[in-house]
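Input:
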Amino acid sequence: MSADLTELYQQVILDHNRRPRNRGKLPTANRVAHGDNPSCGDQCSVYLRLDGDRIAEISFDGSGCAISQASASLMTTQLKGKTSAQAQALYDQFHEIVTTGKEPEEISDIAAFAGVHTFPARIKCATLGWHAALNALKGDAVPATTESHTD
Amino acid sequence: MSADLTELYQQVILDHNRRPRNRGKLPTANRVAHGDNPSCGDQCSVYLRLDGDRIAEISFDGSGCAISQASASLMTTQLKGKTSAQAQALYDQFHEIVTTGKEPEEISDIAAFAGVHTFPARIKCATLGWHAALNALKGDAVPATTESHTD
Amino acid sequence: MPTWNNIRADFPILHQQVNGKPLVYLDNGATSQKPRAVIDALVHYYERDNSNVHRGLHALSMRATDAYEGARTRIATFLHAADPAEIIFTRGTTESINIVARSFATRLKAGDVILTTEMEHHSNLVPWQQAAKASGATLRYVSVLGANAEGGLDLAALDQLLTPQVKVFAFTHISNTLGTINPVAELCRRARAVGAITVIDAAQSVGHAPLDVQAIGCDYLAFSGHKMCGPTGIGVLYGRRALLEKLAPDETGGGMVVNVTYEGATWKPAPERFEAGTPNVAGAIGLGVACDYLDALDRAAIERHDHALARLAYEKLSTLPGIRLLGPTGERGGLVSFAFPDVHAHDVVTFADEDGVALRGGHHCNQPLMRKLGLTSTTRASFYVYNTAEEIDVLVASMRRTLKFFVG
Amino acid sequence: MPTWNNIRADFPILHQQVNGKPLVYLDNGATSQKPRAVIDALVHYYERDNSNVHRGLHALSMRATDAYEGARTRIATFLHAADPAEIIFTRGTTESINIVARSFATRLKAGDVILTTEMEHHSNLVPWQQAAKASGATLRYVSVLGANAEGGLDLAALDQLLTPQVKVFAFTHISNTLGTINPVAELCRRARAVGAITVIDAAQSVGHAPLDVQAIGCDYLAFSGHKMCGPTGIGVLYGRRALLEKLAPDETGGGMVVNVTYEGATWKPAPERFEAGTPNVAGAIGLGVACDYLDALDRAAIERHDHALARLAYEKLSTLPGIRLLGPTGERGGLVSFAFPDVHAHDVVTFADEDGVALRGGHHCNQPLMRKLGLTSTTRASFYVYNTAEEIDVLVASMRRTLKFFVG
Ligand SMILES: Cc1ncc(COP(=O)(O)O)c(C=O)c1O
Ligand SMILES: Cc1ncc(COP(=O)(O)O)c(C=O)c1O
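Output:
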């Protein structure tokens, strides 16, 4: 297997894909948002229980490739307990990683997604769950898509 | 000047173009039909006084290239006094001449149009007036065109 | 399986490596590759004859017009159409269907029914949804039978669906997702019996098998050049002349008018009436040459070749653990669509790409059918004249490797 | 007059004889010729990268998508558009205008006014007549002044015409029949003051001079690739993003939808929303390369070159007995349109063709203006980057010979 592909499908990603964390509807959710990648058919719904400005609980549901599912799963583990501002900052860091491949200074599981940057067509898979989560935080009813033309 | 062009613009044609015969509206007409070549903008109206099945008087009016104008002019001189059947036969002969270049056995001015066949794009100019005349004979109200796709 | 001597030499694009492996192009359902003859025709046109058509009297313009109209005649022959005037050049299948659907949008009324099937490509589905919405007509679907859609269209239910209220029946010839070959002549016959106009989406069939619009008895037929060795940006709407003569124009502008005043305009007859503006001249000429190329190979032989490859792929793939194969178990068009329970199609396609194998993964513009089958995506391998049995072995090996990585 | 070193070598088609004479191609208003670089880009695409765009994850598909979207970005830069998403690929000017006109057809109502001008090409006239008819809106025209239309648009009357009822004002940038250059930025400013949407037919201007849609301040702008060194079958509709976001789709089908069920569909944002079906991928890529080619020549230099040739032709032709020259007497776009009292344009064009000179004769898709000027046709010579002052001498000599034959 090529180095690129090994980088893309890291152990962390395969693990989250096989055993997704926080998967399923959240009965206590007070926010929900849905994301679509129309071309691939990837889908992701994110459920939040916001406690003030803080994410008290979070889950996701959906279908898609290993990258999108693992990313959504990992995201839920990362965002739980965070404020909106912290969530946005984490997303910015994640976006930097998947688009440039530059790993963050602190050690973090999200670094596993650095390999995505050599597969530009997959960036939208990696960010789908994050977009839905940020939309849910904003209370935005419009379905998220990571396929807007300028993304 | 090339042989082809000399053939196309024969003296007879130039003469009819410069001094068109039977040009203008026919006040006594009981049949009229209009022809268009939309792409070139050539136009031709043909006026008939039918006496029974016989063309008692005929005139034309219109604008277009030397070929279309001369052809309409010459046509009026040929069709005067003819029956519908004779007119159709003459047109068939004329069509044969302009599409194949084969001159008819009897000597006739319409042979002047034999040169048209080397300029296929001009066939529709040469036949415009004739089409209008045949339509007028049929009492057909639809404007003639020599540009229908299968012409 | 018919093969042609050295056919791959005709397709320059095939002779490259992708990710260090020889390219195995199995994405022909999306678009086909182009033979040298078609590429050369484009170059020749731009280097010798390029000019605007129809309105010119100079040498280049006459040559361009002759070549463009010659392509129209060539395509009429290719389809066994009665008349070249029945061939309207469009950008492709999607535009062709939109033209017909738009014309119905203004003519249908509440109570009328548009009938289509559950296996349509979005391009033969959404335009009819829009036509129904605009006109108040009702859209109905012929069901697809079987858990893996192996049963094809529910022809038994057709008599019930084909009421006299059905004004138009639009269906695909070959499903781009399932490989199902629909009995188009029969569908047309039954539609005609209730007075419904038939519209065939032939995107996956023209260029893959002999086709005779008069024998099929359809009213309209749509296809794309790019899926049959032709250039991009060119396609055809075939329409029966008697219908086209009554049809109002779709787009308007230069080239399709007889007389224009500041108050209004009158229209030329078909096909010009439906070709406003400068057409894709080079594209049409290239498509004509593609017809020559395919006829030289012999379309009956192409059909045998594609079907044999599809059968072979179906058999070999069916040995893979857990694989779910869609569509007919018997005779099928030149493609195979499948899913694995634990590996998503995009991961499959990414792995295959590493092996040089070009596949398509996703909903294949067929979301509602996917949903009905309980899937969100499949992987599709689709074949054409230059594909070989050896390439199917490469495909299957690549699938095995992928499964091993993800499932173990 | 700017010239470029050896520019004619870039255009393979120019190096041929027509009727035994070197080709003098002066029919650029109808379509331009293509430089080697554009032809090569098509060949390269078909030989290396051809694939369907947007829905693929394999190597060719990613390359094709990148090249296609790269062309979009290139064209956005070429037009100084704010955003690549404002560039919609179409077949050409005619389709672009039809898309906009159709959208107004469903939104306008009785009492609304569509304003256009008396000098429009049929492609920017008939679609608006159809939109007016469909919606009940009224179509009004800005007059053209002068017996030979030398006065241009009647700008003094514009304030009266531009009432708040005017919802859309569609006008050409450069007249393909007269050579008139309209003050587009001023027209947009005045239209905006009454809240009218502006639509510019830029078929004759993009590729002939620098152009900045933001400086002009238009809402929509339409043009064709084939008139600016690009391939046939590709063109652009530029639309301001804020407008495109609110605009309903025109055609529907694959590639422009987000979610499709058997009941209905939702749309992607612009530009995808307006590009149903497989686009003319090779055409778009070729158009991007044409932009590179023209920018390498420098569009300001192209403008000076074309205008200088037009001025020279106008001066030299005006010495011919009886000639009637149309359009502005001063600054004009790169074309000259004229008529002789005793020789019809088609005879002129046929004679010119014998001298190797490609001209256009006819109504130039502008019948109502011809009628207003008391003409049925004119002869038009239109210039581009590869034309020379010597070719104008050939043109004038050919005209003299024709006059001698017909008039003596
Ligand atoms: C001013 C103008 N508008 C519109 C058009 C139509 O362009 P196309 O035929 O490429 O759609 C043309 C060219 O024919 C033109 O010159
Ligand atoms: C069955 C079917 N119909 C319609 C289409 C649409 O064709 P195009 O995108 O060329 O318009 C396709 C191809 O994508 C297809 O496979």
